[in-house]
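Friendly challenge for the regulars: who can give me the structure tokens for this chain first? No prize, just bragging rights.
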Amino acid sequence: MNIPILRLAIRSLFGRARAILLFAIPLLLVALAVLLRATAGDAGTNPEDAPLVLVRTFGIGIVVPVVALIATTTLINSEFDDGSIIYLLTKPVSRLSIVASKALVVLVCTLVFAALPMTLAALLMIGTDADLWLGALLGGIVSSVAYAGIFTTLATLLNRSLVGCLIYWLVWESTLTSFISPAAWLSARAWGSSVLHAVADVGQKAHPPVWFGLVAAALCLVGGVVVAGRKLSHTTISDV
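First reply, four minutes later:
Bragging rights claimed.
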């Protein structure tokens, strides 16, 4: 890791207009949780119904990847687009260190603006019942780790990285894995949902196995940083 690059990445992340979305998206999630709790009345809410759907479908399925995508494209894609990456390429800094530092900021950003709001949303809806809050937290962490690695790789390898990341999320994660069961083994959303189902008492079977999701998410992050670092190490100023 490189402390100056970490500071530069954080400033870059919150110095752009799109940073507003980083605050708006989790606020929307929490607002929906409050609305759901308010409309439930004295009868309360069944953790197997709307709360689970909100955490799994909207939280892990939408909030986590969107926050990760905003952070990744801001820190990597935008620097290639506006040429600011040249500043880093001219410095005697390890390319792997550059990518690892940016990936760390992406991961922390996703945890703060996605995983933690999911946890808060679960607590607002049903409190500590069924351990939905814990499942939301751990499932959000796993999917955040996976998306940070996947999007970092795509943002570095592809010329149209924003389009590539959107296609991956919309076509693979949101569509194909929903209709083709075996595809869930290669889905960041499924890995997070598996942990959620295993931890929370919501009557859902963990698929794929939790151990597989944990290993796969870690491999995505580490492998993604290594692949992106190697790609950047072969990038010259003339290529930017």
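The chain is about 75% helix and 0% strand. The radius of gyration is 18 Å. Your move, everyone else.
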